[in-house]
Amino acid sequence: MKHETYWTILPYASGDPDNEIHRKDRDGGGLLIGIPEQLSARLNRLNLPQNSDLEILAIKVNTDALSFYIINIYAPTGFDIDIIRTFLDTLTEPSFTFGDFNLHHPLWGSNDSSRLVNNTYVTNPSKQRNFFADFYARSFSEHKPLPIQYTDDAESSLNSNFHLQELNLAIKNSKTTTPGPDNIPATFFKKLNVNARFYILEQFQQIFDRMHVPKTWKHAIIIPIPKTNKDKLLITSYRPIALTSVFSKIFERRITKKISNFLTTRKEINLMQFGFLPYRDNRAATYALHSAIYKARKEKKYFIGVSLDIQKAYDSVYVDGLIYKCLEPCIKRNICGWIHHFLLQRTFQIRWRETLSDIRYLNKGLPQDSVLSPILFAIFMSDFFETIEHDVECLVFADDIFIFCAHQSLEYITKKLQKTNENVYQ
After folding, report:
1. What does the radius of gyration of the chain's CA atoms come to, in whole angstroms?
2. Looking at the predicted structure, is the pLDDT value of residue 15 above 70?
3. Which residues have C-beta within 8 Å of that of residue 99, sequence separation ≥ 6?
4. Is 9 strand, coil or helix?
5. 181 touches 243 (CB < 8 A)
6. For strand 273-274 and strand 360-362, is the pairing parallel, antiparallel, or unpaired?
7. pLDDT of amino acid 11
8. How confident is the model at residue 3, as a pLDDT?
9. Where are the alpha helices (DSSP H) in 62-101?
10. Could you tell me which residue ranges the Reverse transcriptase domain spans (predicted)?
């Protein structure tokens, strides 16, 4: 017999005369909390200052075993805990506070919503595609790579020779998507016989031994795709989709597999860092967070978390700094040198209305649509945990960061999270 769960939705919507609305900057908006129908819950009124622009929904849930509060907050201009401190201090049961605190800082990227060209319309396709190219390239200034020594002793497994079994697996896992600048699709490699694959294996070995990266592997075709429900007259309303060489991706899969296995077996990655690693998927991250919440509830502690989303995460990566971070866990010699050369002096063109823009150069950031980029970003983020204060925990999933703290004192949690935020901004 199929078991069905019905939910009761407790709304908080602007314009509802039965609810106080604490939002001064615009009409609309609202919050919802859903609970299983078999649980009992009621709304809690909040007496907040009328000039506050917060939206807050607080409910008390009662079960046979215990009672607790759920507090949902939307803070469009940042969250000031002093506004609701009096309310939180009156709570006699455990509480869980979640929300969107809408924090803005240059570290996460600034709001840039300029019109297509100086607030004027551009109708010429050639100017449009070159303007897209300038827009995507403008934050990548040229720089001279730092002198880095790759030839120290290194883990032999990372620099071992290529094997046919590895190549076959990489080809098998290649997706049949749109090919890159060389126009060679994944189906071409999937149909190759054994002799042809042995030839490719020899080429891969030479490329690795010489730390050489073919130019076509460092070139991308970028197609601007309009975002859903966004103003198409704004250049920021387009998402860049990169097309790169399938040949390169097959090679990158071998490198990625070696690095991910090395990092996990050597325990070089924090246990609270998830995404793009073996046995570190979204389910493992969800379980880790659920365990922390359950522990706080069991110990009758406040639990407050802050979610940070790094905008333009790949674009913000400093390549030479990433290479130094690769060297620390002994990712050295050829594999490190090849990665460094792969990331520097990359090029791209914009495909717009079936034609290509002029070539632009990139010397910063990780390439979009690269098989190697996710694991490299995980390495780049590996030292983020050094910014976390004592008693504050952190969960990282790719470029999403969730810092949280559980304690009997709300003031203690506030200070610890504030100090951690300051450390992150530095």
Report:
1. 26
2. no
3. 71, 72, 73, 74, 75, 79
4. strand
5. yes
6. unpaired
7. 58
8. 47
9. 85-89
10. 206-426
Contact 69, 93 (CB under 8 A): yes
Residues 416 and 301: their CA atoms lie apart, in Å, by 15
Judged on CB neighbours under 10 Å (0-12, 13-18, 19+), 236 is middle
Residue with tokens 């792969």: 342
* Distance between CA atoms of residues 419 and 343, nearest Å: 34
Count how many residues are written for the chain.
426
- Report the C-alpha gap between 277 and 365 in whole angstroms: 20
Token couple for 95: 């509480």
Q: How far is CA 26 from CA 14, 15, 17, 77, in A?
A: 9, 11, 17, 12
Give the angle subtended at the CA of 418 by the CAs of 310 and 76, to the nearest 5°: 60
Identify whether the C-beta of residue 260 lies closer than 8 Å to the C-beta of residue 376: no
* Contact between residue 217 and residue 248 where contact means Cβ atoms under 8 Å apart: yes
d(C-alpha 381, C-alpha 375), whole Å? 10
Give Cα 351 distance to the centre of its chain.
26
pLDDT for position 243: 93
* pLDDT value of residue 80: 63
258 close to 265: Cβ distance less than 8 angstroms: no
Within 10 angstroms of residue 66's Cβ, the number of other Cβ atoms is: 12
- Angle, helices 246-265 vs 164-172, to 10°: value is 110
For the chain, the maximum distance between any two Cα atoms, rounded to a whole number of angstroms, is 76
Instruction: Yes or no: say if 379 and 326 are a contact pair by the CB < 8 Å rule.
Output: yes
Distance from the Cα of residue 343 to its chain's centroid: 19
Q: Which of 58, 45, 42, 51 is nearest to 22 (CA)?
A: 51
Q: Is 110 exposed, middle or buried (0-12, 13-18, 19+ CB in 10 A)?
A: exposed
Of the two residues 381 and 311, the one the predictor is more confident about is 381
Helix (H) or strand (E) holding 99: strand 95-100
The answer to whether 344 touches 145, Cβ cutoff 8 Å, is yes
The owner of tokens 């990625």 is 256
Distance CA 406, CA 95 (A): 11
